[in-house]
Amino acid sequence: MSSRSAQTVTSRAAELAQEQEELLAWRRRALTQQLPAAAFPAGTSAPSLAYLWASFFVVVAAVLGLTVNAHTGALPAIADSQRDIAIKLANGFEAEIHQETTVLDRILQSRGSLSQADLLVRAIADGNRVTGAAIVDMTTRKSVVAKGDAVPLDALPNPLPSGHPVAVTTADGPMLVYSAALDGTQSLLAVQPIFMRTLRLNPDAKHGIHLLTGDGKSSLLQGAHAIDVAHQAKVFDGLYGITSSKVREVIVDEWPDTRLIAAAAPVGRTGLVVVSLLTAPVAKGTTVTKGLLIGASLLAVALLSFLIMRKSLVRPVRELLNQAKEDASGATTRERRPLGVREAHRIAKALATTVGAEFPEGRRWRPSVTQGLALAAVIALLWPAAAVAMVWRSPDPQLPAQLVRDGETRAESAGFTLGHFLDDGLATVSRTSRLVKTDDLAATGHTLQRALADDDRLRALYLVDEKGEVLSKTGRQPLRTPVPVPGEVGIHLDDAIGRLPVVYAYNELPSGYAVIGEFDPDRLLGQIGRVKGRVRVVDSELRTLLDSRGYVAYQPLTGRLAREVAVEALPGVTVGRGAAADGHPELAAAVGMVEPASVAHLEWAVVVEQDVSGVRLPEMVEHRWLLLVAAVVVGIVLVTHMWQFYIFVVPLRRLAFFADKMSSGDLDHPVPPQRHDDIGAVAICLEICRQVRHTGSARFGGALRLRGEGPDRTTVLSLADRAVRSHSRSSKG
């Protein structure tokens, strides 16, 4: 062959190669335009990326959460407890103020023709806590008539605010001044010294309860001074006249290992502020080092699980898609590599079969996608399992003595509130019994109605005869068993009414008749429900009578610690425990109800239990964060793996099923894509390769569409014809 002929052949070969490259490039472009673009979150990489990013945010949140609590100072649990005590004391004062205001309003409404002197006598006599009253000319601010303790007119603001009392501090201590207008110039002023029942304060912590009044003065109501009086102004600065509760931690330079905690709460709009002030030892919070270790371990486990997800699903599908695009474009692959995942390997084998290429078998066993993702899930769940095990096996913290004292205070508060609630109901029944007329049941009915309307403690108020039968009633249907009353006057529990505790107050008349008032169980629950924690009232047999969290009456008291403190408290003492016998942290306190005297014979005890898991101790904070992070990680793992399984694994296995048929020589069944994502693109490429075996290389790249054999019925209309047809359609409508 001459040199010229050789050059011609070489040139022709180069032209054919160039044409083949241009054809392949055109096919690739056409195929790319037809294949779905699997952008986030449709691609197979979306779940693993979502898992990694979510794990990263969880790591950051865990580290920040533990870092925020890594401060040195008083225990937050003590501060929270003091805030709760201050709020409860303030609410108690506010309830007393409301009661006194109601009494004074009732006196003024029923004044009638009473003289000014008689009005003052009645105000002091009927008021439970008012010790002095005066009628004052507000224009001259001078007293016209006075009785009892003097009204501190000089300490009162000018003008007096209307609608609520004013708190002032005098030489005798803090007091409240109530005001009620009588006419255009005169007003009734009544004074009430502020006292407080005895609390179980911690002398070791120098715990004291202070009252701040609107005139910028403070008084110690109970307890000890935690700091010198000369320095109290700095501690109380900013607490006068507050409108919401506050907690302040004060650092004293001379006390390196002790902090001052001041918890304050306002009493309505009176300007009175209750402050609980005590000392607390310095304690370390959560450690930053532990937070970093927790975050680093979680991030390492998340990265390992992420890599396994990528190797099990994302990388095989990407390699398979690249090979499928080449085969669907008609490109020749010199060497085909076996894929490491079973489903991808089966699909790659089908691609090789359709294009007539050799495919290496490689090793016989390959893991499936499900097995790889299951391994990634197991590794990802190792961290939550380790976190739960760490919390489960870690030693329980020792509760501070101050929390135990505060628990005893709450128990006494609940017992005090419930006892006086019952005693006030008995007072209503006794007062009503002096007004009823047994020979005039109609008048008695009106008397009972008025008494029940003024006292919402009772659900029913009625008159019974010597046998206990109801003669006249008002309110709801009586539940008490119709038997004679057990005595002359008192409070009794009728435990013969199934699962409902029927508590009633009674007062026997000289005629043998008696007035009975049944207490509303919901109101009884409302009294004990004001205390933080779970409150239960039990009798001498340790049967549950009331439970703030819902209950069935007369069920045995549950919980060994609760039973222990209840037994010790029944004689009338206050008992608190900071841990059970087995060392598991619990906080329970109980008090025997012996005050007032009208409830002592009931032999009841009030048991208060507090959930220690919610207390802000450093160890409990770490445990809660670990459990929270573990729960979030478990949720992330479940969501991402269910996403991968149902959205990607199931279609991939279905495609592998079709691929097995094609590898066995069955090329008659089409391969439909299930979703427009990476696996759907592989299915389209596999379908193109299958069609090539039937229609030839014209199907490479998916550029041509099959035409039908019938005539083409499409007709292009002229502009005139389209206008005529459009006009005819509009005229028909």
List its salient traits.
18% strand, 733 residues, five-stranded antiparallel β-sheet, Beta-Lactamase, 22 strands, 45% helix, alpha+beta
Written account of the structure:
By secondary structure, this protein is α+β, with helices and mostly antiparallel strands. The chain has a domain at 401-614: PAS domain (Beta-Lactamase), CATH 3.30.450. Helices cover 45% and strands 18% of the residues. The chain contains 15 helices and 22 strands. The protein has helices at 3-34, 46-68, 76-109, 116-126, 232-236, 288-329, 342-354, 369-393, 401-433, 441-454, 521-528, 560-569, 618-663, 678-695, 719-732; strands at 72-73, 132-137, 142-148, 166-170, 173-181, 186-193, 208-212, 218-223, 246-251, 258-267, 272-281, 283-284, 458-464, 470-475, 489-494, 502-508, 514-519, 534-538, 544-547, 574-577, 587-592, 605-610. Strands 3-2-6-5-4 form a five-stranded antiparallel beta sheet, with helices on one face. A five-stranded antiparallel beta sheet has the order 8-7-11-10-9. Helix 6 runs antiparallel to helix 8 (369-393). The chain is elongated, with a radius of gyration of 43 Å. The model is unreliable at 703-710 (pLDDT under 50).
